[in-house]
């Protein structure tokens, strides 16, 4: 298993890229709980380890709900410690990416059943696989690759990453402005809140174990208990949504 180059991500206000025209449907997958099994608290623990490694400081971990973006966690960690957030987070971000390389080699993620087939079906249907996630680009790719999913089926230049965004809804709004025919696929109320707040239709899945009634409060256009054997239905739901 080889992991991608850990180059820094492009700015959040990237222009349209040539591979994803504005009129092409883009599927913005959530990663944790939707495509791979989630390890709760992992991201903030990695950020605390990076701070210890780079700055030599041990910070107390505040509580975070599911769906916190990397940028949000940085702010909360330093704020709770009464420290200013560094102007340049690049060194800390690079440390996180290094830590994740070692971590995933020892403890690879596990794909959600049906995820690989769902991603392949979306690509085969001529739709764009991409992501809307709280992590940065390198960690997002490593999560999927460590779980054995084909990262080449994703358009990474069409994706949105929480490394640049403290507010997940604002990130989704930017994604909608760039991809007017986008659909979110996710498993949590945070995915639903992104959809409602941005105007992006979303498809809810029960793969993360969150109660259906909680997710349906955010008016998903479709519900799937799981993704196993549901490729045709999923593609049809995506096409109907856009």
UniProtKB/TrEMBL annotation:
Pfam families in the record, alphabetically? HAD
Task: Provide the species name.
Answer: Gryllotalpicola kribbensis
Q: Indicate what this protein is called per its UniProt record.
A: Haloacid dehalogenase-like hydrolase
Instruction: Spell out the residue ranges making up region: Disordered.
Output: 1-23
The UniProt entry, under InterPro entries, shows: HAD-like_hydrolase_sf (IPR050155), HAD-like_sf (IPR036412), HAD_sf (IPR023214), PGP-like_dom2 (IPR023198)
SUPFAM superfamilies referenced in this protein's UniProt entry, alphabetically:
HAD-like
């Amino acid at each position: 298993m080889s992991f991608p180059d850990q180059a820094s991500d492009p700015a959040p206000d990237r222009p349209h890229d040539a591979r994803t025209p504005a009129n092409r449907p883009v599927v913005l997958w959530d990663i944790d709980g939707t495509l791979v099994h989630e390890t709760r608290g992992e991201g903030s623990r990695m950020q605390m380890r990076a701070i210890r490694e780079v700055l030599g400081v041990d910070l107390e971990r505040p509580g975070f709900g599911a769906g916190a973006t990397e940028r949000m966690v940085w702010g909360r960690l330093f704020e709770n410690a009464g420290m200013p957030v560094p102007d340049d987070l690049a060194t800390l971000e690079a440390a996180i990416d290094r830590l994740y390389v070692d971590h995933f080699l020892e403890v690879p993620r596990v794909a959600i059943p049906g995820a690989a087939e769902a991603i392949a079906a979306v690509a085969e249907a001529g739709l764009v696989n991409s992501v809307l996630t709280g992590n940065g680009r390198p960690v997002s790719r490593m999560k999927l690759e460590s779980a054995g999913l084909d990262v080449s089926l994703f358009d990474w230049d069409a994706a949105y990453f929480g490394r640049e965004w403290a507010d997940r809804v604002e990130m989704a709004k930017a994604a909608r402005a760039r991809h007017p025919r986008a659909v979110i696929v996710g498993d949590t109320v945070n995915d639903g809140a992104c959809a409602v707040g941005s105007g992006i239709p979303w498809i809810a899945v029960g793969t993360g174990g969150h109660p259906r009634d909680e997710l349906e409060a955010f008016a998903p256009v479709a519900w799937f208990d799981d993704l196993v054997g549901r490729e045709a239905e999923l593609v049809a739901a995506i096409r109907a949504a856009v």
